[in-house]
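ASSEMBLY PREDICTION REQUEST
Request ID: AP-0331
Submitted by: J.K., bench scientist
Number of chains: two
Total residues: 989
Priority: normal
Notes: Please return the full assembly, not individual chains.
Input sequences:
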Amino acid sequence: MVVISDILVQGVQMLLVLLLAPLLTGFVRKIKARLVRRQGASVFQPYRDLLRLLRKEVVLAENASWLFRVTPYVTFAAIWVAAALVPTFGTGLLFNWTADLIAIVALLGSARFFLALAGMDVGTSFGGIGSSREVMIAALAEPAMLLIVFCMALVAGSTQLSTVANFMALSHVGLRVSLGMAIIALIMVALAENARIPVDNPATHLELTMVHEAMVLEYSGRHLAMIELGAFLKLLLYISLIACVFLPWKIAMIGAGPLSYAIGAGAYVGKLALAGFLLALFETATAKMRVFRVPQFLGAALMLGLLGTLLLFVSRSF
Amino acid sequence: MSPVALQMTCVAALLGSAVLAIVLSRLGSATAVVYGATLVVSLIALIGSIRWLLGGTGGATDLTLPIGLPWLGAHFRLDALASFFLVVVNLGGASASLYGLGYGRHEHAPHRVLPFFPAFLAGMNLVVLADDAFSYLLCWEFMSLASWALVMAHHREPGNAKAGYIYLVMASFGTLALLLAFGLLAGPAGDYGFTAIRAAHHTPYATTLVLILMLLGAGSKAGLVPLHVWLPLAHPAAPSHVSALMSGVMTKVAIYGFIRVIFDLLGQPTWPASVVVLFLGGITAVMGILYAMMEKDLKRLLAYSTIENIGVIFASLGLAMAFQANGLKLAAALAFTAALFHVLNHSFFKSLLFFGAGAVLTSTGERNMEKLGGLIHRMPFTSFVVLVGCVAISALPPFNGFVSEWLMFQAVLQSPELPQWALKIMVPAVGALLALAAALAAACFVKAYGVAFLGRPRGKSAETAQEVDRFSLAAMFILAALCLLAGILPGFVIDALSPVTIEILGGRMPIQSNEPWLSIAPIAESRSSYNGLLVMVFITLSASLVVFFIHRFASRAIRSGPAWGCGFSDATPAAQYSGDSFAQPIRRVFGTMVFHARDHVDMPAPGDTRPARLRIELHDLIWEGIYQPIADAIGYSSERLNRLQFLTIRRYLSLVFATLVTLLLVLAIWS
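STATUS: Completed
Returned structure:
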């Protein structure tokens, strides 16, 4: 009986992230539009876009291989599994222990690996330029992310995200220099990983200035829908990650009743809205940087993560 | 028959096959006979060592042969550490033999390969089994020379003679270092048996010297930066299944030597030693993968990536030394297990990838990836298994490379317990270096796979490529399956490694097979766990679910059309992204500092019809900074000394007289 309810809660989480992800992106777009005094599309527009894409036929380049056709599903599945393992409304879900934070980072790495390969598959220059820049960004963002993980793990004594969230929610961690560095670095990495301004611009379709969009230029129809949904999910994942570690307010604990799950879910939606608003505000206020400024940006994140970890090695109380 | 006798019989059988190969080598069926024999013998040895490792309780067995030094005899011993490395050696040997059954048929000079292949296998087995310094060094040299002969198999190809020469010089240098190390270990009494060395007390001074000499000796064979220079030249020069053995297995034999001496013979390691090993490991990992990133020769890229993996293994060993020196048994076992696991993993995927490169070489005749492309359409099976290898080596779940990296990071997270300040600073820095190396490895293998196997063919040979034979494919598929199995069932591997950690460190990781759902949890208190099996099941299930729903309820229509060229469809495949252009962002970020990389663009003025050119300038600073000056100095001094050859007899006599007087003077002043 307990197992069934556990599976149920886990299933709810999987569906919840899947359903909320497009809404979050729609919300961010809406806020961005309002901030520049445009009307903006409805917050539900991403759902409509996805449905439209799903119903369309796929136009496959002549040279595309099976890898090109498999990649959208593999990347989507990897991101979805990763997103389902990050605590959102409650900690200690049934499968939380399947993969810890390092494994979640690596799952996102798997998704990116296949996407970068797919960019090379058709054999056009656009795919290549996108892939090569994407792996350059990843080569800096991933180590930065791992150092941030080290930072959190050293504070909480575990890389298990559920345990970290519990620790942050229950004990009085207080203000810590290392965690301050970690959150700044994490936000920087999240911006880079989700191809947001100032690293990349998700709204452009001018191939030479962009990274992620150039890589997936050849995709259409349901394949594109999967990749878009994966990107939405990834944004949600990073926000959930930041929320569950640094803002575990009202998150439901292991074995809590349905009521606290509901409260947790409500709080979670609130956190998403807040983060989405801040993201839109930030994106409106800054400009995109040149591609070769990105290494410096991410290098700063890497150094912050390293500094935070070093401080924790010096003393656990930093 | 005792386990060690079984292993020695297998070695004898391998040596017998080498002799047989000399006799048969001109016959047409020699390839099949020799590789078939090595396959069977390796499999027997493999099963024997696995049984020993899993049985685990038999205790070490000895064997003394009445050869070698007259007062010592040749000692051989099978213990847990040796049997683990025998698994690595013989698994590599068996898969290379299976691959050789197909690949060897294309060999145009089989008599240059066949006799040395079993001898090389026998040499590696013997190094692992040897139990006294004399046999160890003898077998080590035997292994080196057999592999050198295989490197020189195609000695007329450009570059191979130079590769063989540099390899010979570096191998001799390494053996010299080992010789001195064992001399120090044997002490003034000169007892070369490992049992005696283990029992003897070693002064701190001697211990430090032995560590330095082992880093030089074993490190040069394994490919530690800056002693790696021979490796990317020699490994690719050999036939591909031998490259796989050299990269996947022989480097591991060097690591075995390092572990045997530093952890076993010297006794308790000291913490300053671990700082050195950690530092070298971290630097080696990053430098190796950066070199690989810049490379366009497929096999050399793989050889450089071997250097990266060796760095990862040495860094884990350094961590294990640090923990062991401070008495943190559990953490030491964790780091040591991570190192051994990575040894095993690397032997799987590196052999697989070298086999893949060999398959590409067989069917296209090309090692330069800038002339390949589109092989996924023409060599579907090879492309599939190479993809598995690339994912595994990039440390991505659910494959095996990720598990060992994960264990290593868990070990890094245990290190704030270490009391020394140097380690407190060094460990996070090395952790960052390893994370960087892992991320760069993924980038590097996106490049290798994307350029060689995806896209459009860049040359005639890539257009007409054919799938390779069944033996080669079978060998690759078996290794790919092992990569997946070790990735989804890591608990079994960790448990199988526990006899080794108990023997070497006196501690072990918690038993993993008791964990629910086959997940692994290295440190009970931290509750960090990973379950590769469930990750794979979840990904497969959710991907299939999505595919099913979309195809059932949305759309399954597909139309084929030309690729979108943004108004300018690139007609020629040469306009695709090449390996060099793919590496350009990373070259610009890291290469400007590490390789002094410069791009020289020669753009003709408007109206000028000559083609624009881009030249990339890269400097191998280690070669130019260390090896070139040494070579120059030797060249310069030999040039000067050359004059001595053309003197008259009177001058020679006066030189002899002067030398005699000087020596007598020295003697007089000395005493």
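REVIEWER COMMENTS: Chain B touches chain A through 84 residues (CB under 8 Å).
SIGN-OFF: pending second reviewer
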